Amino acid sequence: MRPRDPTEGSAVRPPAMASRSPADLIAPSRPPRPSRDLKPLRPERRLNGFFRFVNGVLTFTFILLALCGGLAMVLRTWFDQPGPLANSTVAIIPKGEGVLEIAGRLEREGIVSDRRVFMAQYYAARLYGGLSGDKSGIKAGEYEIKKQASMRQVLDTLVEGRAILQKFTVPEGLTSLQIVERLRADQNLTGDIVQVPPEGMILPNTYRFSRGLSRQEILDRMLADHQKLIADLWEKRQQGLPIQTLQQAIVLASIIEKETGRGDERDRVAAVFVNRLRKNMRLQSDPTIVYGLVGGQGPLGRAITRSDIDSKTPYNTYQIDGLPPGPICNPGRQAIEATLNPAKTSDLFFVADGSGGHVFTTNLKDHNAAVQNWRKFERDQKAKQTGQSAQGGGAAIVPLILPPPAATEEPATAEPATKPAAPAKKAAKKAQ
User: Fold this and answer.
1) pLDDT, position 5
2) What is the CATH number of the domain that holds 155?
3) Residue at 117 is within a domain
4) Which residues, including other chains, have CB under 8 Å from residue 283's CB and lie 6 or more apart?
5) What is residue 417's DSSP assignment?
6) Which of 79, 103, 289, 296 has its CA at 20 to 30 Å from residue 180's CA atom?
7) Measured between alpha carbons, how far is residue 432 from residues 179, 336, 361, 365 in Å?
8) In this predicted structure, what is the pLDDT of residue 127?
9) What predicted TM-score, i.e. pTM, was given to this entire model?
10) Is residue 118 part of a domain?
11) Where are the beta strands (DSSP E) in 187-271?
């Protein structure tokens, strides 16, 4: 029996290609099925990956914040620790410098130990609202820094503007030109003054300022203070005065200011001039003669002579009726108050009494007697001074210097007492 052929009884299967049509041959093949071993990504695994990412971000942020917090603590401790200054000093912050320049200046002068820490704290304070409004920046000025002051104390001092205040005093009775010259001579001020203000518009007072303030700024403050004061005092003036305007009040106040330096006499001096104005009498004030001759330049530098009294100037109240055309100086508060509220007296004259005050009289006879007493006092004082000079012996005697021919006129103080003497006649002429 022969063995069975395996191919017998079955149809021979041709290759797959033999049974495919031409259309099948050019059709795209199907992709292979995925292996049973690969499993699809489950939603749980996706969520786990997202949480791991968020966790990494949070961890990084926490570490960064911890480092920043630690650095901030170190800087704050450094910022609050005592500074390197062995002794108190003065720091000058020029106008216009930025924080970088100021920090470098403070470090060079040994006031702060590290400019970078100082700047970092400054910007941090601005960022987190520690500096706002008027405290938004470092102010120029002159500052006293205490011994071993911390950087925080230094910054607070500069930001709050606790500068050393300089002082500028304007005495009563100076002219506007004299005040401007004093401002220009003050080295603590900067800039220049373009124009000298009108006479009588500056308020004499003591003004405080920080080093580096411009001269024009402090002058503007003087002018503004004057306007405010005169407006307030004008509202409280005595009724019935022979003064119609604020300008007239300032003119008369300037004359009163130059006539007496005693506060307790100003209202009586004002009463004399007010009474004269009411009676249409000339004021006959010596300081108006001086201003008419030299203007706002300052004192005359010599005694008033007869020719000075007779000089025809718009300000010479011996020659004009009523008030001069403008003030002769810048009067102070007391002089303005006295002008607007004079004493209620009948006085028409006054003359120096030799003690720094004046004798007030209501008639010419009593006034001439007071003038004679004053002249006697002058002669006695002159004789006393001459005797003291002669006591030093021949070698110490100072020869008499005769005045030049142009100045040999008889001084006004020697005029006869029968002539109505000036109501403002003084013994020792105070600086005009």
Assistant:
1) 55
2) 3.30.1490.480
3) yes
4) 255, 273, 276, 277, 317, 322, 323, 423, 424
5) T
6) 289
7) 14, 18, 24, 28
8) 75
9) 0.67
10) yes
11) 206-210
Q: Which domain holds residue 101?
A: 78-160
Q: Are 315 and 325 in contact (CB under 8 A)?
A: yes
pLDDT of 116 reads: 86
Taking alpha carbons only, the member of 286, 287, 283, 289 closest to residue 270 is 283
The one-letter code for the residue type at 45 is: R
Distance of alpha carbon 324 from alpha carbon 277, whole angstroms:
12
- Give residue 395's pLDDT: 33
The separation between the first and the last C-alpha atoms of the chain, rounded to the nearest angstrom, is 166
H/E run at residue 349: strand 349-352
Four-point Cα dihedral 157, 163, 164, 170, nearest 10: -160
Whose structure tokens read 């007779």?
Answer: 310
**Which pair of structure tokens corresponds to residue 412?**
């006004």
270 domain residue, yes or no? no
Q: Is residue 180 part of a domain?
A: no
Q: Helix (H, G, I), strand (E, B), or coil: what is residue 141? A: strand
Task: Report the chain (432 residues): mean pLDDT per 10 consecutive residues.
Answer: 54 52 64 60 61 74 72 66 84 85 90 86 74 63 86 85 87 96 94 94 93 91 95 94 95 96 92 96 95 90 91 95 96 96 94 87 92 88 75 36 31 35 39 36
pLDDT for the residue 144:
85
Per the structure, the count of domains in the chain is: 1
Separation CA 415–CA 420 (nearest Å): 10
DSSP bridge partners of 361? 349
Q: How far apart are CA 208 and CA 140, in angstroms?
A: 15
For residue 305, the Cα-to-chain-centroid distance in whole angstroms is 43
Instruction: Give the pLDDT score at 414.
Output: 33
415 is written with which tokens? Answer: 């005029």
Structure tokens at 254: 């300037």
